[in-house]
Design goal:
heterodimer, A: alpha/beta, TIM Barrel, five-stranded parallel sheet, 22 helices, globular, B: alpha/beta, 6 helices
């Protein structure tokens, strides 16, 4: 990009500058200058750090391969990112009220958080659900619950993301059934299903079945959606949880992409057309605290994905080269102490997501280290996005940090580090092999331990935790409490549904599901038939468990 | 004189290897914290047994008794702590393991910490606690427990 003369000049000047700087280096403001991921950051970046001759090709233009600057030509100038707050609590009715609240205050997309029993495939009245119903998200047992969640919401006019993995097909089927009842054709439905089982084994740990049958459920869903729900994002290939579990930014990037490519290969092996399903694969990244490291991560992500889809998987359709992603600010960066500080953390993290060109954003609430978001806290979180959009000016131009010596050098480094991990994963035989051998889990645990040690040694300062501490602090913000009556109510409701539905139909649809699962029938189609007649989530999972098996993780520490 | 003898006794007890069972009960799968604690305990010289995820109180207590541990550490981030902690404590007591220290961590509101400690949960470490605090607590608590047992 820069000619040799110019660079020589810069290098000479740097050497002279360095002599003077050395005199001032005796004084250090911090013990170490490292990113959140532990990477050393140089004191200064100059054109010499980005002297790559392919600069104009590597960075290029937004909407043009390799999309470093963004996947669309006009990005936020035409359409802002979707403001999509992850949300769900207690009963379906409580959740429905929160959704109306958020939509009325300017949210532009829905995102459903389910409780642990729902995430793990247990009905609310299962013995394993005791004490857990409605605590981390909304409780869903049957179609009746999903009908209430979306009461008064036209599914043809919103896009909805659902954070659910092992039982994802069941929740999508319920959503489709609600759309049917509203008279909305499947072709009009827009949304995303997280449905990323690989990262469950690696990080979030919410699984039911072993990898192979789980991937089959996913490829079945992909095939069904390609034909019938063409606007639906079938997977949200996630790095968020990998990062929350303690990985570095490069690991988050590499492990997520590796998972994504594993799904691509699985669908190809299933006989599906790469250009038919790839445009509906989406991604989900964390926005952690190191501002520039995150921005570099998103830019590198787009570049790596585009190149591999084009050159390795020979996707011909340009839409197969676009890495579209949702971002959530880092939950693990928030503190329980002085929770109002989390508003500030979230604002900076959200800003990095926007400067990184995210398609969709969730900003955390200040109280999420203590409880699910209160109304007050979630409103501030939503307003944070609106302030970024309307008041900061960052959305006036596309990829404003392009050309920054630091950001471009960091993007290149992030790409190189991620590629090293991708090669290592390949060398080990792929993602499934890596999961089996505990490779990802150990890397993540090592990184998490290192991070904690940095904090305890004060190599890393967290305000309110190991410095700037408030003694005898009292929490004065409102804290949401999930009442025990939620569990009682859900238990009564599911019993009522079981009593009032046509149990013959339930039995028949479950038998048909078993046949499909044992054979090669499309499992989503069979599950849709089950949910229409108010079969419970637990009953569907219980039917599949003996056929697919149960995943047990060897406890590695 | 007696005081010095007591201090020497406690220091001796504190240097004996501490055996800890670490467990994740209920449906919560978030294991970053418990793995960090496990690594720190190991580095501190404790013998650590980790049960893995999705344990019931019964499974945890059975493992604790089988492994004859000094302490059981439980991590709960899911909000189910008021159900699971007391269940584990009660079961330990039922099975004559009242001497086992029950401690833990997770997302537990302050008022619930107070209630749980009244119910016999020995110590809870909430967000912001350090591994060093947990290590020091256990060393002291186990030594005290052992000394009390000797007296009795």
């Amino acid at each position: 990009m820069f000619d040799k003369e110019f660079l020589k000049n810069i290098e000479n000047r740097k050497r002279n500058w360095d002599k003077e700087a050395e005199k001032q280096r005796k004084v250090k403001s911090r013990p170490r200058f490292i990113t959140v991921s532990g990477e050393e950051v140089n004191e200064l970046y100059t054109p010499a750090d980005v002297n790559d001759a392919d600069f104009s090709e590597k960075v290029g233009f937004p909407g043009e391969y390799p999309y470093t600057r963004g996947i669309h030509h006009t990005m936020y100038r035409s359409r802002l990112w979707t403001m999509r707050q992850f949300s769900g609590m207690g009963t379906p009715r409580q959740t429905n009220e929160r959704y109306h609240y958020l939509l009325n205050h300017g949210q532009t997309g829905l995102s459903v958080a389910f409780d642990l029993p729902t995430l793990m495939g247990y009905d609310s009245d299962h013995i394993r659900s005791l004490g857990e119903v409605g605590k981390c998200g909304v409780a869903v047992d049957t179609l009746a619950d999903v009908e209430i969640i979306f009461d008064g919401i036209n599914l043809g006019q919103v896009s909805t993301s659902m954070t659910i993995n092992a039982p994802a097909s069941i929740l999508l089927a319920m959503y489709l059934a609600v759309a049917e009842k509203e008279g909305v054709p499947f072709e009009k439905l827009r949304g995303t299903l997280q449905n990323d089982i690989l990262k469950e084994y690696i990080a979030q740990k919410e699984w039911v079945f072993p990898p192979k049958p789980s991937i089959r459920l996913i490829t079945d869903l992909m095939a069904f959606c390609t034909d019938h729900v063409p606007q639906w994002n079938t997977i949200s290939i996630s790095g968020y949880h990998i990062r929350e579990a303690g990985s570095t930014a490069a690991q988050e990037l590499a492990f997520t992409l590796a998972d994504g490519f594993t799904y691509v290969e699985a669908a190809i092996a299933d006989g599906q057309d790469v250009d038919k399903f790839t445009p509906r694969l989406s991604f989900f990244f964390n926005a952690h605290q190191d501002f520039f490291e995150e921005i570099a991560k998103y830019r590198a992500a787009r570049r790596i994905f585009a190149r591999r889809m084009k050159e390795k998987y020979h996707a011909k359709d340009e839409r197969s080269w676009l890495l579209r992603f949702h971002t959530q600010t880092a939950g693990c960066s928030l503190t329980a102490q002085q929770p109002e500080n989390n508003i500030v953390r979230t604002a900076f993290e959200g800003l990095s997501g926007v400067l990184g060109g995210t398609q969709s954003l969730h900003t955390n609430s200040m109280d999420e280290t203590l409880a699910l978001p209160s109304e007050k806290a979630v409103l501030i979180a939503l307003r944070t996005q609106q302030i970024i959009a309307c008041e900061t000016g960052v959305a006036n131009t596309i990829d404003p940090l392009a050309g920054s010596y630091f950001v471009e050098a960091l993007t290149d480094k992030m790409e190189a580090d991620a590629e090293k991990y991708l090669e290592e994963i390949d060398r080990r035989g792929g993602v499934l092999k890596g999961i089996e051998e505990g490779y990802f889990q150990r890397e993540i645990a090592k990184a998490a331990y290192r991070y904690q040690k940095e904090i305890e040694k004060k190599d890393r300062i967290i305000v309110g935790i190991n410095d700037y501490v408030l003694e005898n602090e009292k929490i004065t913000i409102p804290i949401l409490k999930i009442d025990e009556s939620v569990e009682r109510g859900q238990t009564a409701f599911i019993k009522k549904i079981r009593a009032e539905r046509d149990n013959d139909k339930v039995k028949r649809t479950l038998e048909d599901l078993a046949v499909a699962a044992k054979g090669t029938g499309n499992t989503l189609k069979a599950i849709l038939d089950c949910v229409r007649v108010y079969t419970t989530e637990g009953e569907i999972i219980d039917t599949l468990r003996p056929i697919f098996g149960e995943y047990i993780e060897p406890p590695i520490i | 004189m007696n005081l010095i003898k007591e201090i020497i006794e406690i220091e001796k007890l504190m240097s004996e290897k501490i055996r800890v069972l670490l467990a994740k009960p209920g449906l919560d799968g978030h294991d970053r914290g418990i793995k960090v604690i496990a690594a720190a305990f190991r580095d501190a010289g404790f013998e650590v047994i980790y049960t893995g995820l999705r344990q019931t109180p019964e499974m945890i207590v059975n493992a604790a008794i089988q492994e004859d541990v000094d302490a059981v550490g439980v991590s709960i981030l899911s909000g189910a702590h008021m159900t699971l902690f007391p269940a584990i404590r009660n079961l330990l007591n039922e099975k004559k393991a009242e001497h086992m220290i029950l401690f833990g961590g997770g997302i537990i509101p302050d008022e619930d910490v107070v209630t749980l400690e009244k119910m016999g949960i020995d110590k809870l470490f909430t967000p912001g606690a350090t591994t060093e605090e947990a290590i020091n607590y256990l060393r002291e608590a186990v030594a005290k427990r052992k000394r009390d047992e000797k007296i009795i």
